């Protein structure tokens, strides 16, 4: 009886200490994200600043990838009037968001 309990205990310890294989290595995920990131040009930085500073006044900022380009169009049209932005500013914001999709 003691040998059976000892054998079970050893098996449990060995099983709990066994290494687990990760499903996706972190470096692979980081490289995939880095590959999709677009370097911001000065024009896109202007759009990002406008987005960050004007849109965050009234609500939380959404990640550009949260919506598709087709979904962003009516959102930006609706928000332009509320944020009191001219067409040039909206074009900058739209270009920034499109670059991040």
UniProtKB/TrEMBL annotation:
Residues 1-26 form the signal peptide. GO terms for molecular function: electron transfer activity; heme binding. The keyword Signal applies. Keywords: Signal. PROSITE patterns: PROKAR_LIPOPROTEIN. Pfam families: DHC. The keyword Flavoprotein does not apply. This is Cytochrome c.
